[in-house]
Amino acid sequence: MYNDLKGKVAVVTGSTSGLGRAIAVRFGQEGMKVVVNGPNDEKALAEVVEEVKKAGGEATGVVADISKEEDVKKLIDTAISEFGSLDVMMNNAGVQKEIPSHEMSLEDWNKVISVNLTGTFMCARNAIDYMVKNDKKGTVINMSSVHDTIPWPHFVHYASSKGGIRMMTETLALEYAPKGIRVNAIGPGAINTPINAEKFSDPEEKKGVVELIPMGYVAESEEVASIAAFLASEEAKYVTGVTLHVDGGMTLYPGFQAGKG
Hints:
By secondary structure, the protein is α/β, with parallel strands linked by helices. The chain has one domain (3-242): Rossmann fold, CATH 3.40.50.720. It is 44% helix and 15% strand. It has 8 helices and 9 strands. It has helices spanning 18-29, 42-55, 69-83, 106-133, 156-176, 197-201, 203-210, 221-232; strands at 9-12, 33-38, 58-63, 88-91, 139-143, 182-188, 191-192, 219-220, 243-246. The strands form 2 sheets. The chain has a 7-stranded parallel sheet, sandwiched between helices. α3 (69-83) runs parallel beside α4. It is globular. It catalyses: D-glucose + NAD(+) = D-glucono-1,5-lactone + NADH + H(+); D-glucose + NADP(+) = D-glucono-1,5-lactone + NADPH + H(+). Belongs to the short-chain dehydrogenases/reductases (SDR) family. Its EC number is 1.1.1.47. InterPro entries: NAD(P)-bd_dom_sf, Sc_DH/Rdtase_CS, SDR_fam.
């Protein structure tokens, strides 16, 4: 636990399930005030709000689609109106869909890019705007992926969005470091989340994934949430512009393990 996080205000996008939900709850455990978010599921939002409160934090829920500028503004405004500040912007929301690249329509491409890349930018931009105008040394954390580094056939829109997030993170970090605003990213590998549930329910599919992980196991969402808490805290006060891969070694070219190659 990080004592300096107690009472700080965070927005966590895409926090009705998976990694976002785990991060929101972990922020609650840190005693933070959390704006949880989802695009349409008010029931799930209410459940996460209660989980955050039970964990020891304060929370409110906002239905918002981060690909829409007015909805992004609503998220930031809610943090300020409900809790009086914004200290941590956790840009977690993202979508993916498998489509062979030669069959991908412009609509397919735009849907993923508008949420994953443009939505992340708008959230980061609006949060930083508030921090600059209020002389606040806040933190922005973007959710990237191992696929900011590892090519992923049939997911060119997703991989492109995550590669963009990596460079966006570095550029914003460099631009706003003189203001004391830190910008970092988390790049998860194979994590046991609802989006992966079907794949991991097949023993052969899961075995194939585990073979790509040098540490030999699929992580739980809480293992990513702990990294979000670290990056949000003063323990990481000299860390900016970093994409921290939480991947059990997936980005280390596992095919070369044990001297192969």
